[in-house]
Amino acid sequence: MATVAPVGLKNLRIALIQGAKITEDRTLKRRGPVSIGTDPKNTFVVPVSNLPATFTLFEYVNNQFSLVFSDQMDGKVKVGDSELTFDALKQQGMAVKRGNVYVVPLKDSMKGRVGVGEVSLLFQFVTPPPEPPKPELPPGIKGSLLSGIDQLFFSILAASILVHFSGAGFIACQPMPPERELSLDELNDRFAKVMMPTPVDKPKVVEEKPGKEEKKEEKTEKKEVAEAKPTSAGEKKAALEKKVASKGLLKILGSSGGNGAIDDVLGSSTGSGNIAEALTGAGGVQVGTADGMAGGPKGGAAGTAAGIGDLGTSGGGNVNLGDKKEVAVKGRVADVAPEVDSGDVDREALTKYVRARRAAIQGCYEKELKRNPSLKGKVVVRFEIGTNGRPQDVEIEENSLGNDAVASCIRTLIRGWVFPFKPEAPAPVAFPFVFSPAS
After folding, report:
1. 119, 48 contact by CB (below 8 A)
2. Per-residue pLDDT for 379 more than 50?
């Protein structure tokens, strides 16, 4: 790459000779490599058949020029007061062989000639001429800014702008005209044709109540019992027990038939095993008789007052209400490759780190899945991994779930992570999470 010559350094001056005539004489403005050949991009384009399309004749490395020549070239270089040919430079070791070419370091005091077929190049080092100052016109000829403006055009433009803006300002300052309300006579007549459907009478459905027949049967049975009046004392006692058994709670408990009210309470004739178990030990419940009623007018003994303990119950039984079952709601999080815009963060290691914490991400989703079983979609979280391994600027880039609670929960979880990476600069990461119900 060519560079500007520092103060005190000289540039190459090269003259191109063809047929004993100098066809080109050039002083390089910048210090850099010089190439020759038939390629138009070379520094000097020469029609030489035994050269490649591009050949670097002068190298420039570390502010040092070097002459490069091959065995097909001839020439000489003036070193001090003596002129040495290329063969002499090879013999004295001043030309170092590098592949098929020889390299000779040059100093600013050296000059010489290089012959390439029918073309010769003369070179020497000269002090670069100073850059000429930029030509400037005198102030009288240069003129001012206003002198270059067409006064007629500028006057017409200014007048047009003044007229247009004045008219626009006047219109904007005018008050809006009030809108007059229309009277009823001025309103247009509007009619709407509405077809009302003809009402259809629905037939009344008479529902038969099965309870009436049962009540009739019960009334018939009661009448038969009333007609058959007991005569003896034993029949009166049995009739009284039957009458009491058909009243209140005992009637309900003994309605399924069986051996009687007491058997229905203590047994399993009703098929309600749980109710029978709950009333276990209720032995104090029985049908009262005249002999067992103490203190009555027909009682045979004085009797005592009965308390709660005299009932002889052994405690209430347990009612089996069945096992309570909860339906578990499960969701799943699909594995999707993240986008990492940094070479300091390994994508596979990052995916493995996030996969180890996928249960917490799945918990955020399942919490809202209980409220909405059809909740599914994709959430893309974009953040930067700082130089200390902590996430920065955690933002939700995409949320097709339509649920802000899940996105907020995921953002809160990621802010508390500490990644096992410490990049030299913040590493941008975009991590997608795809949620769907497990069922």
Report:
1. yes
2. yes
